[in-house]
Amino acid sequence: MKKLPVALLALCVAAFGVPFLTQGRSQQTTQGDTKPELMDIKGTVRADNAKITFVADQGGKTWEVINPETLKNHVDQHIQVNASVDPEKGQIHVISVIVL
User: Fold this and answer.
1) 95: left (phi > 0), else alpha (psi -120 to 50), else beta?
2) Average pLDDT over residues 1-11
3) pTM to 2 decimal places
């Protein structure tokens, strides 16, 4: 009869204790994973049919815009964006826009 409460206690500790213990641990990143860098970039917004891209002044690099709705009102304008940049994928996620 005493085995039932002990088994129930062990089950509760296993069910609730393990997630609690692993909660504080950070996930290790692999060498291929890089965190996008936050940058200010000046350039011009271009639209090719429905696709919006951003062409940087410095170097002339064309970036794919992950959230194009932020730039749709700025097509053919010279602007500065604050964006998370993923150079490996050639993508930016625009945080803010300043019209120059």
Assistant:
1) alpha
2) 71
3) 0.64
